[in-house]
Amino acid sequence: MVQKLALVRRGAAGSNFSAMATSAASTYAPARVEDAALVRGRGRYVTDVAPPGAWFAAFARSSHARGHLRGVDATAARAMPGVCAVLTVADIEGAVMPAINPLLPARVAHNVPLLADGVVLWVGQPVALVIAATLAQAQDAAEAVGIDVEALEATTDHGGVEPPLLALAYRSGSGSGDARMSAEVRLAQPRVCAAPLEPRAIVASWQDDRLTVWLPTQSPARARDDIAATLKIDRSSVRVIAPDVGGAFGAKASVTPEELAVALAARRLKATVRWTAARGEDFAAAPHGRGALLEGRLECDAEGRFTRLGARLRFPLGAWLPYSAAMPLRNAARILPGPYVVPAIDIDAEAAASDAAPMNIYRGAGRPEAALLMESLIDVAARAGGIDPVQLRRDNLVPASAMPWRTPTGETLDSGDYAVLLDLACTRFDYPAERAAQRARRAQGDLVGIGVAMYVEPCGQGWEWARVTLEADGRVFAASGAPAQGQGHATAFAAIVARALGIESRQVTVEVGDTETCPDGIGALASRSIAIGGSALHAAAVEAAARREAGAALPITVEKKYTAPGEAWSAGCVMLRLSIARDTGVPTIERLLWADDAGHIFCPQLAEGQLHGGLAQGLGQALMEAIRYDQSGQLLTGSFLDYTLPRAADMPDIEIVSLTTPATTNLLGAKGVGEAGCIGVPAALYNAAADALAPLRIVPPDIPLTAERLWRTIRNAPQGDHP
Ligand code: SMO
After folding, report:
1. pLDDT at 12 over 70
2. What stretches of 529-599 show up as alpha helix (H) in DSSP?
3. Does the beta carbon of 365 lie inside 6 Å of ligand 1?
4. Reduced to 3 DSSP states, what percent helix, strand and coil does the chain have, rounded to the nearest 5?
5. Which of 49, 475, 572, 626 could connect to 190 by a Cys-Cys bridge, CB 3.0–4.6 Å?
């Protein structure tokens, strides 16, 4: 059961948007328009668009994490039925993976080829690409490719062998040196996989010296540019289409070697080639997320004010760098102080390669790491100082009157009222009563904890393009460079344009996901689609309306680029009650209250859906999910038999209350909402587990807090206070 989203409005003095914010949400709150097709199996995904006669691709992959590649023998494979071609590194024209986001230059170049060249770098690395008439023929031939490897010792994540490829440091202020309380925390997070319903896939078609690519990507424009650069052709010769996309979560933000190799094969054969990853191929070779080692120290003065935050964040990178590989590190370091006043910081973040699958952004992308470390530090400090953890937070929040707030890492929090957010959560959760009930249950021996976590969520920066067309017959077309992967952009974008034009949402047709018919775009990532993509649409629609008023003849087309002057910072507070069964270790979320401020919300139903989805993934990470490698770099979790995803029955009741402080950094007052559940929920769950175990004087194991790990921890409690 899910409680309806409750809206609490706050006026925002100084926001251009505050006048609009009071009237819009209820008027423009249409039901999702995309669901009728998607929930009836009538979606059109990349694998559905493959034309008859397309060739099938399959990959022969490395079964070693590191080794000399002494030879690849494709003779037998080439002779097998239906086989059209077998490509090895000799056939890919020296193509290497594209450069990474220049926001964070790597210290060394990483010229990782599309197919293994002389060395193998991780288990699952593509070594040869087989093209055949049927999928079975391609797979059979891929198995017949002889891969001769002299195995070498593998470097695991945090193995301490590889020097950091990326490093960041933030230092500012000076610690007062008279810390009354201090807390230290060291937490390890496992790698996780994004596990979208639709795995990676591509259809690449070469015709008349042009390449058309269907790809479930979050960034069609960048995929086009990366494919063009890899194939050394002009980007005007490449069209990328993202049709319906079955989830992405960051793992589809960057192109991967398989996709580029298939595109290259299509050109080489002057044909259409299709590939859909098996689930196991995504486990082994799609980008993973998280995996960081987090260490921190928080110091407070005699009044319980934070005086200094020190941290060392170490991220694994795997064997090659996707475009956004450095983002988790950058985000975790820059937002670590969260919604709090921290006078002095000393933060080091670094990332090193390992002989494992690549790392990339995954829903939250560094924000969950920051929240987990900061929020657990606050709870440890509160416990050490005998202060209520809510009170300690309240005493250190950035006051609303100080907005916009310059953080010690140089970020600018544009808006927010964190004290109101915390009080709202306390009131709705009935925090004092929950504490009283907890005391009573503890007296009876129950292991029950209350977890609190606050978070901030920057929603990305930069620009998006939009195009709005008013047709003579009354139809309106709205096109954006930000595609959709299930979020409901067709619904939300239509609502934004309809409001600006004073028409009904259903009069607006939204077009996204095609580099030929849509304007340029950065893409759907970093919780930026409504704030930035939506603002671009709003601006284009407003100008179209003005031209219509001024008497311009229809049709009218306005194409506009919107650049956000800064990031919009959403925030939230999660409070939950978690019990842990003493005899089995099974954790149960008994209650979860969540106050979230996503700024102005256009479609409450969509925002709520985003919060629920993020919560499911945050819960999965905190309680269940873990990618495991052994010491030799073999992947131990190659299927859903070994890797636990949360299911519907694992979801708790969710009470959501929404606060609105409109963003000041975009035209809509909107903030991010899609990643929030991954940010606040794991930190609150960890803190709840720590609170539950505190009477035993033990700390929780690292996440995931599985029943087994909790049970072992309870069994090993020093004082023997267990059955
Ligand atoms: S992890 Mo998101 O797709 O920026």
Report:
1. no
2. 535-549
3. yes
4. 30, 25, 40
5. 626
- Is the pLDDT score of 27 beyond 50? no
DSSP state letters, 185-212: EEEE--EEE---SS--EEEEEEETTEEE
State whether the Cα torsion 369-410-412-184 is positive or negative.
positive
Both tokens of 422, joined, read: 């915390």
361 lines ligand 1 (CB under 6 A): yes
Nearest-10 crossing angle of helices 535-549, 489-501 = 30
The span from the CA of 533 to the CA of 466, in Å, is 7
Strands across the sheet with 508-512, in order? 508-512, 476-480, 463-470, 556-563
Instruction: Give me ligand 1 centre to Cα 387, in Å.
Output: 36
pLDDT recorded at residue 109? 62
Closest residue CA from atom 4 of ligand 1: 526
Confidence of residue 28 (pLDDT cuts 50, 70, 90): low
Q: What pLDDT digit, counting tens, does each position of 362-415 carry?
A: 999 999 999 999 999 999 999 999 999 999 999 999 999 999 999 999 999 999
Q: 526 CB under 6 A from ligand 1?
A: yes
Question: What is residue 106's predicted lDDT score, i.e. its pLDDT?
Answer: 64
**What is the Cα–Cα distance from 425 to 435, expressed in whole angstroms?**
14
Query: Which tens digits make up the pLDDT trace of 466-493?
Result: 999 999 999 999 999 999 999 999 999 9
3-state SS class at 417: coil
Could you tell me if the CB of 257 is within 6 A of ligand 1?
A: no
* CA-atom Rg of the chain in angstroms: 26
pLDDT reported for residue 100: 87
Close Cβ partners of 151 (under 8 Å, ≥ 6 residues apart)? 64, 66, 67
CA distance 616 to 614: 5
